[in-house]
Amino acid sequence: xxxxxxxxxxxxxxxxxxxxxxxxxxxxxxxxxxxxxxxxxxxxxxxxxxxxxxxxxxxxxxxxxxxxxxxxxxxxxxxxxxxxxxxxxxxxxxxxxxxxxxxxxxxxxxxxxxxxxxxxxxxxxxxxxxxxxxxxxxxxxxxxxxxxxxxxxxxxxxxxxxxx
Length: 164
Prior knowledge:
It is a single chain. By secondary structure, the chain is of the alpha+beta class. It has helices at residues 2-16, 20-50, 56-63, 70-79, 160-163; strands at 118-127, 130-139, 145-151. It has a three-stranded antiparallel beta sheet. A hairpin with a 5-residue loop joins strand 2 (130-139) and strand 3 (145-151). The radius of gyration is 31 Å and the shape is elongated. The termini are far apart.
């Protein structure tokens, strides 16, 4: 009975075009990979308990698993549903209602020298639960900052005019 069983496995390996040794090597690699995945998942759960919002990339660099790359680590975490959800940023810094749109005067302008065209941009910074707005005026040709202003409000007088 045992010889018939061994014969059928030999016939199966021959039909698949692999050797018994090749099959067992592949099985051992699979079992090693599964064991590593289980260890990673266990460690991620432990870290998640103390740091619920830590991203998996930070966890990867914290754990530095020897036989697992960053992308494979992230894939394992994704498959297990262990990615942290980013909090939604509900901050609204632009209110375009009632804004008058003006014609683009620079569309046919070839900027060939400094002080032909200035452009401005406003960005914000949250410090101690308060927004600060930073306005920059930049020369379009040289890319030099020709004016700047920091303010706590978004009015034209507090931002762009003050930067001019």
